[in-house]
Design the sequence.
């Protein structure tokens, strides 16, 4: 270890401890313990340009144990990213760029939002998938345009989470040799020693996954060992690598090696002692020696030079392979192909009744042919989700003889949570638009990752089929009730429940147009008619007046429906019209888009002064904002043929019409409140 290495490592340790102490909040232990491995990684291996953090061929770094973010912020500051010393001093303060856990949308140089343990390593798998796919798609002899490594630091907690196991298992199968994970094995978690509940041999587990495994016994001091291990890992091209690095949490502090340094400031006396131990002035705060700035500045300059060389190679690539260059440029600029919306089908009432999952298959197949960056798959439900187009090639290592890395269809296996987190990593990497698929009810398995899609503003398409009791005999274990309410309650989500083919096409258009939001497409197993009055353009508003039944000059009732219940609402309106009522049916495929419309438009659809009901074979939670009486299911479902289930739960045209008459009668003597007001 050279003097500058030791000085840099100690600077990282002290600076991270200063940040936590100033905030009186945070986690000093992991940054102090991980400082040596992070220093070696960032000064010797990671190729990136701090002055252009979006350079596409940069190596990616993920801090999966996001509570250790003081470590990452210090490194970003030393390298010259847009993280100033004042930003470090404002750690965990309101509106700072150094929040309590890394957030992709907040801080220059942060690749993914981490903090919920296990998510980061799964994101790293997704990034490695995207890199391998883009390399296979665009690289040509003498032109390794896409050629970077995904590095991650993980902790014991990450590797206890199921999502990490799901993603790591798949990474081993996929032979992702571009992924290197540094495992900070400090033996401590919040409750105390990991011996309390985590005594497995992690490296044997990862070896069984198909990973290349290494170990560094003294992660506190052995920089040569760390360097050799990372070099060895990078040289293995047909397996992801994990390096178990034994460290001391809170190295140098009075409570080092204990849970006492995990999630609380060191305290003034202990911090002063640490500074003295490492040769710093105990009375000074937030100090970086000039030699450390110089050393890290030199590494940053190397990164800028690496990008310069890459840009020169890219210019030659443009001359040698102009079509590939044009396609790569379009993707990196985030532009979708010209006319992509035009490939989506339009439908009329005379067209055949089909399940919306089948209509989705048609739409997705058309889009896959037009948008080559669209890439994804299913959690072992391909034949049910209908997400694989006819000429799709699987994303597989060639050694399996099942596909290749240029393939765009992923076999996620029964790994819903890992699938969603991998999708987030793919979206964060760039150059691809990921989709994932399972039954709607099982997005609950993936909620930890799907929530981060929204928080991170990532365009991930969740194609969810079997979206209600309409799936029938599989029963309440598979029938979503509360699921859509949970999704609608999640900020920055678009949740679509299309009622026919036009609304399916609109859902895909909107999902792809919104590059900063994830979308859920909830699709039926049962056939639905193509509706009179539906259109792609109307559906893009999230809610619209579908048709009015009856001949009166004044509306007596409004019925709002979504998905499979919209056609039931139509049939109920027809029954009511036969009894002399005038009823408007409103289709509301996406409440989020509808709520974003102007007051004038929303009130033109949900007409003030008119009694209203909604019909949806899901929880009624959240519907009181839009209608006076929501009709749905607020119990679990049941097992049986779906038509019998609809009758059991009162979701037939006759049952709805009967209840609607009572509502109309009630409001004859009671003022009708105006809903969906925004102030």
Sequence:
């Amino acid at each position: 270890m050279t003097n500058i290495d030791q000085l840099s490592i100690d600077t990282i340790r002290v600076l991270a401890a200063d940040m936590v102490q100033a905030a009186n909040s945070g986690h000093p232990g992991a940054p102090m313990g991980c400082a040596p491995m992070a220093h070696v990684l960032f000064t010797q291996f990671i190729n990136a340009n701090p002055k252009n953090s979006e350079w596409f061929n940069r190596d990616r770094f993920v801090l999966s144990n996001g509570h250790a973010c003081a470590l990452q912020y210090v490194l970003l500051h030393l390298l010259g990213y847009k993280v100033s010393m004042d930003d470090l001093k404002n750690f965990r303060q309101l509106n700072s760029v150094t929040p309590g856990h890394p957030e992709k949308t907040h801080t220059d140089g942060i690749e993914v939002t981490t903090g919920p343990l296990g998510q980061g390593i799964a994101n790293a798998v997704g990034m490695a998938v995207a890199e391998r796919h883009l390399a296979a798609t665009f690289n040509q002899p003498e032109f390794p345009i896409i050629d970077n490594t995904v590095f991650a630091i993980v902790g014991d907690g990450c590797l206890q989470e199921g999502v990490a196991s799901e993603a790591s298992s798949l990474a081993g199968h996929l032979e992702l040799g571009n992924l290197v994970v540094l495992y900070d094995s400090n033996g401590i978690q919040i409750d105390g020693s990991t011996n309390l509940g985590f005594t497995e041999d992690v490296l044997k587990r990862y070896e069984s996954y198909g990973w290349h495994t290494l170990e560094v016994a003294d992660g506190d001091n052995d920089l040569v060992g760390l360097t050799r291990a990372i070099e060895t890992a990078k040289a293995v091209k047909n397996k992801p690598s994990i390096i178990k690095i034994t460290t001391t949490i809170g190295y140098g502090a009075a409570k080092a090696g204990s849970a006492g340094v995990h999630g609380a400031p060191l305290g003034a006396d202990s911090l002063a002692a640490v500074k003295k131990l490492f040769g710093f002035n105990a009375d000074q705060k937030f100090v970086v020696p000039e030699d450390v700035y110089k050393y890290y500045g030199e590494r940053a300059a190397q990164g800028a030079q690496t990008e310069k060389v890459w840009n020169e190679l890219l210019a030659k690539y443009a001359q040698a392979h102009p079509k590939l260059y044009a396609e790569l440029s379009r993707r990196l600029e985030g532009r979708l192909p010209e006319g992509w919306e035009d490939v989506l089908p339009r439908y009329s009432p005379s067209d055949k009744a089909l399940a919306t999952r089948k209509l989705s298959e048609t739409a997705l197949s058309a889009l896959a042919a037009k948008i080559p960056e669209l890439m994804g798959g299913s959690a072992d439900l391909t034949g049910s989700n209908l997400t694989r187009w006819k000429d799709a090639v699987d994303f597989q290592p060639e050694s399996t003889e099942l596909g290749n890395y240029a393939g765009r269809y992923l076999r996620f296996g029964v790994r819903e949570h890992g699938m969603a987190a991998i999708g987030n990593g793919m979206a964060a990497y760039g150059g691809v638009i990921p989709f994932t698929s399972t039954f709607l009810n099982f997005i609950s398995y993936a909620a930890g990752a799907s929530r981060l899609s929204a928080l991170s503003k990532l365009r991930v398409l969740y194609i969810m089929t079997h979206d209600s009791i309409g799936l029938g005999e599989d029963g309440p274990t598979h029938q979503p009730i509360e699921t859509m309410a949970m999704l609608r309650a999640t900020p920055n989500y678009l949740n679509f429940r299309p009622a026919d083919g036009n609304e399916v096409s609109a859902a895909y258009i909107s999902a792809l147009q919104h590059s900063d939001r994830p979308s859920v497409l909830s699709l039926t197993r049962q056939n639905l008619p193509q509706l009179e009055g539906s259109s792609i353009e109307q559906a893009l508003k999230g809610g619209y007046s579908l048709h009015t039944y009856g001949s009166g000059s004044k509306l007596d009732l409004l019925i709002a429906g979504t998905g499979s219940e919209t056609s039931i609402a139509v049939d109920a309106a027809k029954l009511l019209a036969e009894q002399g009522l005038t009823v408007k049916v409103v289709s509301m495929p996406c409440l989020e888009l509808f709520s974003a419309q102007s007051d004038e438009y929303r009130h033109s659809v949900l007409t003030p002064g008119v009694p209203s009901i909604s019909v949806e074979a899901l929880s009624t939670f959240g519907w009181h904002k839009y209608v006076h009486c929501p009709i749905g299911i607020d119990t679990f479902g049941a097992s049986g043929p779906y038509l019998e289930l609809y009758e059991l739960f009162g979701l037939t045209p006759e049952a709805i019409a009967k209840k609607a008459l009572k509502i109309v009668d009630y409001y004859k003597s009671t003022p009708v409140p105006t809903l969906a007001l925004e102030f």
Observations:
- The chain has a mean pLDDT of 97.
